């Protein structure tokens, strides 16, 4: 019976995604290689920029930064943020680091019927963004507390302190 349930789940996942998924573009650039882990000062700067962005919009967020090995480096939870945001922000950051891509990719894939929800450690919600310095992944930032687009906007502001900086 268990084998039948697994087979049915696989068939449903592949049938729903067969027409919706496009083949990867051969010109798409590969994800960045892993680099040395982010240091605390840079992690805190990214968090400060993310918190400033959230404050500017009137949002309350949990913001986590992990290193290139997906280990927590720094975290902040704004006053009034839902308690679950702490765990979710860290999960988003860990997923962005481990998979070397924004968690928006998983949200988009899930929306298109892909079976990404079965990937261990994935989270199908925007708000996790890799942190890239000198072309290498040094960590990731994750934000939670609002709608997925708000979480992502907050993360992008934090990531800009590293990804947008001259390295």
Can you give me a brief rundown of this structure?
This protein has 167 residues and is an alpha+beta fold. The chain has helices spanning 2-17, 40-57, 85-99, 104-111, 148-163, and strands at residues 62-67, 72-77, 128-133, 136-144.
CATH class: Alpha Beta
CATH superfamily: Haem-degrading domain
- State Rg: 17 Å
Number of helices: 5
Structural account:
There is one protein chain. Helices cover about 45% and strands about 15% of the residues. It has 5 helices and 4 strands, in the order ααββααββα. The chain has helices spanning about 1-15, 40-55, 85-100, 105-110, 150-165; strands at about 60-65, 70-75, 130-135, 135-145. The chain has one domain: 2-Layer Sandwich (Beta-Lactamase). The longest helix has 18 residues, at about 40-55. β1 and β2 form a beta hairpin. The N and C termini lie far apart (about 55 Å). A 4-stranded antiparallel sheet has the order 2-1-4-3. The chain is an alpha+beta fold. α2 crosses α5 (about 150-165).
Task: Give the secondary structure arrangement, pairings included.
Layout: H1 2-17, H2 40-57, E1 62-67, E2 72-77, H3 85-99, H4 104-111, E3 128-133, E4 136-144, H5 148-163
Antiparallel strand pairs: 1-2, 1-4, 3-4
List keywords for this structure.
four-stranded antiparallel β-sheet; 4 strands; Beta-Lactamase; disordered N terminus; alpha+beta; 5 helices; 167 residues; single chain
């Amino acid at each position: 019976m268990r084998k039948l349930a697994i087979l049915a789940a696989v068939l449903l996942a592949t049938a729903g995604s067969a027409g919706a998924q496009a083949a990867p573009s051969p010109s798409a650039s590969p994800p960045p290689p892993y680099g040395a882990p982010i240091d605390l000062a840079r992690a805190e700067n990214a968090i400060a920029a993310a918190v400033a962005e959230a404050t500017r919009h009137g949002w309350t967020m949990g913001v986590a930064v992990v290193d290139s090995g997906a280990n927590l480096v720094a975290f902040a939870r704004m006053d009034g943020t839902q308690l679950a945001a702490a765990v979710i922000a860290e999960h988003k950051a860990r997923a962005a680091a481990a998979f070397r891509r924004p968690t928006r990719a998983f949200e988009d894939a899930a929306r298109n019927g892909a079976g990404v929800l079965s990937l261990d450690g994935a989270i199908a919600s925007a708000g996790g963004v890799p942190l890239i310095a000198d072309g290498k992944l040094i960590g990731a930032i994750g934000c939670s507390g609002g709608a997925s687009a708000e979480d992502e906007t907050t993360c992008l502001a934090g990531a800009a302190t590293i990804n947008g900086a001259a390295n």
